[in-house]
Amino acid sequence: AQSVAQPEDQVNVAEGNPLTVKCTYSVSGNPYLFWYVQYPNRGLQFLLKYITGDNLVKGSYGFEAEFNKSQTSFHLKKPSALVSDSALYFCAVRPNNNDMRFGAGTRLTVKP
Amino acid sequence: DTGVSQNPRHKITKRGQNVTFRCDPISEHNRLYWYRQTLGQGPEFLTYFQNEAQLEKSRLLSDRFSAERPKGSFSTLEIQRTEQGDSAMYLCASSTTGGVSEAFFGQGTRLTVV
């Protein structure tokens, strides 16, 4: 089965510190991986995707993600967290370029 | 606003009633998806369309759920004989078919069954 897992329900970081939100995947074939963010009372917003090529993918709002094939991971990172980054983050995989399967989400809290 | 639009934003209904939600995708997107999201969980895939054809439907989807996209533009999701367990946020998304494209989501319809 094609799926992603987000091992942390909650991540807390101080403003200005680097942040990492973890995601591991289980897919057969080429993985198409995505990160989305969900702010309160708003729809999911696309941050970035990995299809092929460079393992480091840059996305919106200063976020980036590193694809690691040997560790089957696609962790989301940002060098310096902002309070406004506090939100719910979802990793997703798109098997066969059809529907998208989401992880359970990680709540990021950035404290001033 | 040219994003994905969902109506209504909120719906409260009594158990046993039927409800229908509407989704208007981004105009040039020929793929349309429906997801359900409950508190503390990620979106769960329900079904998706390419143009007017419903190409995939989750095996978890009860027979009480039906979706249509008659002209390949807007879509409706109907739930018949609602149950309290149907209470959730229903999300619609759309995408193109070119390459591996990301899906753009609407703000969702929050259903509460009382």
Label this structure with key terms:
heterodimer; A: 112 residues; mainly beta; 4-stranded antiparallel beta sheet; 50% strand; globular; B: 114 residues; 7-stranded mixed beta sheet; 49% strand
What does this entry look like structurally?
The complex is a heterodimer of chains A (112) and B (114). Chain A has 112 residues and is mostly beta strands. Chain A has no helices and twelve strands. Helices cover 0% and strands 50% of the residues of chain A. Chain A is globular. Chain B is mostly beta strands and 114 residues long.
* Helicity level of chain B: under 10%
Indicate the multimeric state: heterodimer
β-strand percent of chain A reads: over 45%
User: What's the average pLDDT of chain A?
Assistant: 92
What spatial form of chain A do the alpha-carbon principal axes imply? globular
The main β sheet of chain B shows up as: 7 strands, mixed
Question: N- to C-terminal separation of chain A?
Answer: 40 Å
Tally the helices of chain B.
0
SSE arrangement:
The complex is a heterodimer of chains A (about 110) and B (about 110).
Chain A: E1 3-5, E2 10-14, E3 19-21, E4 24-26, E5 33-38, E6 44-50, E7 56-58, E8 64-68, E9 73-78, E10 87-93, E11 101-102, E12 106-111
Parallel strand pairs in A: 2-12
Antiparallel strand pairs in A: 1-4, 3-9, 5-6, 5-10, 7-8, 8-9, 10-11, 10-12
Chain B: E1 5-7, E2 10-13, E3 19-24, E4 31-37, E5 44-50, E6 53-57, E7 65-68, E8 75-79, E9 88-95, E10 104-105, E11 109-113
Parallel strand pairs in B: 2-11
Antiparallel strand pairs in B: 1-3, 3-8, 4-5, 4-9, 5-6, 7-8, 9-10, 9-11
Q: What is this structure, in a nutshell?
A:
By secondary structure, chain A is mostly beta strands. Chain A has strands spanning 3-5, 10-14, 19-21, 24-26, 33-38, 44-50, 56-58, 64-68, 73-78, 87-93, 101-102, 106-111.
